[in-house]
UniProtKB/TrEMBL annotation, chains A, B:
<keyword id="KW-0812">Transmembrane</keyword>
<dbReference type="GO" id="GO:0015743">
    <property type="term" value="P:malate transport"/>
</dbReference>
<feature type="transmembrane region" description="Helical">
    <location>
        <begin position="162"/>
        <end position="181"/>
    </location>
</feature>
<dbReference type="GO" id="GO:0016020">
    <property type="term" value="C:membrane"/>
</dbReference>
<dbReference type="InterPro" id="IPR020966">
    <property type="entry name" value="ALMT"/>
</dbReference>
<dbReference type="GO" id="GO:0034220">
    <property type="term" value="P:monoatomic ion transmembrane transport"/>
</dbReference>
<feature type="transmembrane region" description="Helical">
    <location>
        <begin position="193"/>
        <end position="215"/>
    </location>
</feature>
<dbReference type="Pfam" id="PF11744">
    <property type="entry name" value="ALMT"/>
</dbReference>
<feature type="transmembrane region" description="Helical">
    <location>
        <begin position="78"/>
        <end position="98"/>
    </location>
</feature>
<comment type="similarity">
    <text>Belongs to the aromatic acid exporter (TC 2.A.85) family.</text>
</comment>
<keyword id="KW-0407">Ion channel</keyword>
<keyword id="KW-0406">Ion transport</keyword>
<keyword id="KW-1133">Transmembrane helix</keyword>
<feature type="transmembrane region" description="Helical">
    <location>
        <begin position="136"/>
        <end position="156"/>
    </location>
</feature>
<feature type="transmembrane region" description="Helical">
    <location>
        <begin position="53"/>
        <end position="72"/>
    </location>
</feature>
<keyword id="KW-0472">Membrane</keyword>
<protein>
    <submittedName>
        <fullName>Aluminum-activated malate transporter 8</fullName>
    </submittedName>
</protein>
């Protein structure tokens, strides 16, 4: 518009048509940018979840299919105007997930059947009262049933599962009872019911057999993803603590701001309650599919969801602790700081293992249990550090001490949450009949890969908590350890202590080996 | 059943009919208890919100009213079978809140109009393609429009406001386009549209004029209630801290377990997101009512809601600190403990004032600001206590110190949250044009009532942060202070310092008066 007015001032003789053209042009540009924006958004929505595009095509398909009842003459003669109920059913019943479609189809079918029968009954009753009494009796019956049925929708269980059914019940009852006073009824009722069944069946078949979207699978994935989000945060937080310690020898480089946004990822976990509940509700209706049986323990997923959100709440508080870096830390503070890092990292590993187990539908691996024990042990270690330093005789800056103490305290709470999540995932794997993880050998290999390297003062302690028999496998393991040790020595560490705890044996012996 | 079998053994000659009677009796008893349970639940649901009963009656009323189109012959002759669309509309469109009903009615009306016009257009287009091409063209058009419209439902804005409209759009377009190939169309379209309008208008009128339930009012109340719940928790927490201090002179008696359940009340705040959002969405559709204008800033309520939930998250963590009572507390710990109590209490008072302001649609009172300043001052006081004791030369139990430090740290975070909530409520009161609180005099009186009495060491400091001119009102105030002072001296306190800060003036002078 600015350019436009400048042009007009420079060319005062210019005709008004030119101005109109310019303003049209700017309008066109605006429209173009708006269209581009919508196109961009459309593309993003499609790319985020391509199943959405498939769903849109499926709905189009189902609708075109039931339209056949209108196009094809013989079918039309059979059902007449009632064919529209098939279209209506498809439009209203077809949902994104199989569970949603089944829930609405079954609700609609059953409600139509029951309400239809009741409606015919009401009509018969009304006929007994003579022609004058009939509309009055029907009116009262419609009022009563509509009011009562509407009230039942406030019952939580009805609201959750049968809300749509109750709506259709009221609708069908009113229609049948009322239209009965005017037209031949049974024929219409039969036509409607059969067309509704055809519509519902079309939706269910297309929904189940053409690229199905299972709400149960979505819930399963959502819970696994949420657990992983917490793990990602705790891992990032651990790194952050390390970088704030100013530990140059740290393997993990200080992440830049873009990567730090991963620390914000848990926020979506806090708001996932509604999604989880609706998915669990739909999943309840779904038939068995893949490795999910008909009565898969969906409620257990909700339980895990609650615990995950509780943990996310603690993480929200922890998030506020990131910026509080100690300036000149005492040895005591450094110790606590390093314990915090270990707690955070171990919790992260437990959560990763749990998320992995849920994703692959296996029992949580032994590694998850070991990391859990490690994190509890680290929490105990923290307590013992406090005990050792119970009387702070040296000068300590309380203000700086506070920040590490708060971090540690929240982390201990998080460990408790993670423990609960772990128990809950165990329950889930039992109830849902998950597989056992593949083999012990593989576990041992992953154990090696997941070994914790704790820098305590100027030592590096490498703990492997698993029975090690003299097998070929263990020789490999040992050579792996030696390689790790070499790497760390070249990294500038002087002393390395390797403790091998036989936790699976009867006694817990410790065999420190100086390399 | 057990009694039954005993009877049979004692009377082996007893006939089978007796057994059947007994089992019928037990079945009847079970049924009776089930019915009693449902009756109890029904009563509870009705008592929790009597508007639910009214709503059920309203739906019955609307439905009976539109049934008139079937009963009354002249009307029936005018609309014929299309009268059923009025019933359908009422059943589907009538929602609990006015906003819900308006949203669905308007969506349905507009979508029917647009889709009807498009459908007629599609039919004309199809006719150009000859009798053989017609079903094919219509089929393709239905498929395309249904697929595109279904996809638009994934756009967040469409999903939020026009989801129902899109459904009705697909439905009407399919019906009109398809049925057009069979019957005289315009007449039917006109009948349907007018019956839908009659149904929708009936719903809207009954919904607005018969005991209306405004979603906006509900949202308003919900936010005020949530803020108050946080206040209740913090007040309870403050009391709890005092009782854990073992302070016998505390005015508030130690609450029993039943009363402690109030500390759990904030949990519902954490899960209120979905409710808030749906209420705000419905409220957007509502016409002006009472003191809510047409474009009341509903989004601001959602902002406050987010902050309140954030605060509730911190409270969740604080809740874990309640059980950690200091055993043998040092003077330093006692100081911090008492500061924590003050922070908690002041925050609670701020939140109560804010909740009160929202409820009454007034600007937050000056008392809210003063309590806010007090809580920030207490947080600063805590920091200065830390500074004073920065080097703990005496023996301190770090483990016990930790619990108080964590409590204090979380409370400081809560103060930050409360500050944000306070700013947000201020914004709301500006945007929504709330009233000013009644008069300054009344404020001063409440100020006196709400004066904070802080025990610092063996002094009692009474701070009043307000300009005090020599008016009759202030003389009363002063005599009130003297009475308070007397009470505290008789309570065993030796020294009392009264600071009067003129915070409303240009400079902040402090006039301590030794009584």
């Amino acid at each position: 518009m600015e350019i436009n007015s400048i042009t007009c001032q420079e060319n005062p003789t210019r005709s008004c048509i030119g101005c109109v053209c310019d303003s049209l042009k700017s309008m066109f540009e605006k429209l173009k940018s708006k269209v581009m924006e919508i196109a961009k958004q459309t593309r993003k929505i499609g790319e985020d979840d391509p199943r959405r595009i498939v769903h849109a095509i499926k709905v189009g398909l189902a609708l075109t299919f039931v339209s056949l009842f209108y196009y094809v003459r013989p079918l039309y003669n059979g059902f007449g105007q009632a064919g529209m109920w098939a279209i209506l059913t498809v439009v209203v019943v077809f949902e994104f997930s199989v569970g949603g479609t089944l829930s609405k189809s079954i609700n609609r079918g059953c409600a139509t059947l029951i309400a239809g029968a009741l409606g015919v009954g009401a009509e018969c009753l009304a006929k007994l009262c003579g022609e004058k009494g009939q509309p009055f009796v029907l009116g009262v019956l419609v009022f009563l049933l509509a009011a009562i049925a509407t009230f039942t929708r406030f019952f939580p269980k009805v609201k959750q599962r049968y809300d749509y059914g109750v709506t259709i019940f009221i609708l069908t009852f009113s229609l049948v009872a009322v239209s009965g006073s005017q037209a031949a009824n049974l024929q219409i009722a039969y036509q409607r019911l059969s067309t509704i069944l055809i519509g519902g069946a079309t939706c269910m078949i297309i929904s189940i057999f053409v690229c199905p979207v299972w709400a149960g699978q979505d819930l399963h994935n959502l819970i696994a993803a949420n657990v992983e989000k917490l793990a990602t945060f705790l891992e990032g937080f651990g790194d952050e603590l390390f970088s704030s310690l100013g530990d140059e020898s740290s393997v993990v480089p200080c992440k830049d701001d873009k990567e730090k946004t991963y620390l914000q990822v848990y926020k979506s976990v806090l708001n996932s309650k509604a999604t989880e509940e609706s998915l669990a509700n739909f999943a309840w209706w779904e038939v068995g599919h893949g490795r999910f049986k008909f009565h898969h323990p969906w409620k257990q997923y909700l339980k895990i969801g609650v615990l995950v959100r509780e943990c996310a709440c603690h993480i929200e508080v922890l998030n506020g602790c990131i910026n509080s870096k100690p300036q000149a830390a005492s040895e005591f503070q450094l110790k606590i700081h390093s314990t915090c890092k270990n707690m955070s990292m171990e919790c992260s590993k437990v959560l990763k293992e749990l998320s992995f187990a849920i994703k692959n539908m296996t029992f949580p691996s032994a590694a998850a249990k070991i990391h859990m024990q490690n994190s509890i042990a680290t929490a105990d270690e923290f307590k013992s550090i406090l005990m050792e330093n119970s009387s702070l005789s040296t000068k300590t800056d309380v203000q700086e001490l506070m920040s590490v103490l708060v971090t540690a305290s929240v982390l201990i709470d998080i460990i408790k949450c993670v423990e609960k999540i772990s128990v809950s995932v165990d329950e889930l794997s039992q109830k849902a009949g998950f597989r056992q993880p593949k083999s012990l050998e593989k576990q041992q290999q992953t154990l090696l890969h997941r070994g914790i390297v704790k820098p305590v003062n100027d030592h590096v302690v490498l703990e492997i908590s698993e029975t090690l028999e003299e097998t070929v496998e263990n020789k490999k393991l040992r050579s792996g350890i030696v390689k790790l040790v070499d790497d760390h020595i070249s990294g500038g560490n002087d002393h390395i202590v390797i403790k091998i705890n036989e936790t699976l044996g009867d006694s817990e012996r410790s065999r420190p080996i100086e390399v």
